[in-house]
Amino acid sequence: MYVLIAGGGKVGSNLARTLIRAGHEVTLIEQRGSRFDQLEAELEHQAHKGDATELFVLERAGIERPPDIVVAVTGDDEDNVVICQLARDRYGVPNVIARVNDPRNQPYFDLLGIAPTVSATAAIMGLIEHEVPEHGLIHLLELRKENLEIVEITVGDKDGCTGKKIGQVALPEGSRLISVVRAGKAEMPDDSMRLESGDSILAILEPGKEDELRRVLVRE
């Protein structure tokens, strides 16, 4: 596999080292002079100096082959958007991955269809929610291309759904229960299953339906 990485900071350089150790071909682009000198000393010809938003830099690095995947992990979200757009639309790269430094910029990546994206802030928030749930609903996975997400809800003693059969619960349109974990065992739910306190429910739903699902399943 041939991977082109834009951004030679800690994320990009560690990713390059890991891929190289796994036997993959890697080209790393970094524009900062002092950082490039360090990478060149280590990676030699696999490191290229320049701004990865510029066409001649990308072409010099070998994007016209094209790579199997381009990974944009610079510290600037605008640059990461441009790099992924160029790779995908101009050079026909089949796969792109972008780093999102500021989660407030995620909608711009979504609007332009740049996916998948990786946000350290969002990932850490997900772990915090999992360890210290505040609202009884934990985001597990976002399927941006499919416009779906998977969440986990733990049923409490006084929650609205406790003791009810799934068929009696008015789930929001665009949502579905896909698994109920009870006593450490996952079961495929059907309308006749009665929800009990301590059940861990996995649900798949459209983004924006979380509050509706919470109101139906979880005590406010």
- What is the count of distinct domains? 2
Low-pLDDT regions: none
Record field, number of beta strands: 11
Which fold does the CATH topology of the largest domain refer to? Answer: Rossmann fold
Taking strands numbered 1, 2, ... along the chain, how are they ordered across the largest sheet? 3-2-1-4-5-6
Number of helices in the DSSP assignment: 7
pLDDT averaged over residues:
88
Q: Which CATH-level-2 architecture of the largest domain?
A: 3-Layer(aba) Sandwich
The main sheet comes to:
6 strands, parallel
Q: Please report the first level of CATH classification, the CATH class of the largest domain.
A: Alpha Beta
Q: Beta fraction of the residues?
A: 25-35%
**What is the share of helical residues?**
25-40%
Termini gap: 49 Å
The CATH superfamily title of the largest domain = NAD(P)-binding Rossmann-like Domain
Structure overview:
The protein has 220 residues and is of the alpha/beta class. It folds into two domains: 2-118, NAD(P)-binding Rossmann-like Domain (Rossmann fold); 133-217, Alpha-Beta Plaits, CATH 3.30.70.1450. Helices cover 32% and strands 25% of the residues. It contains seven helices and eleven strands. The chain starts with a strand and ends with a helix.
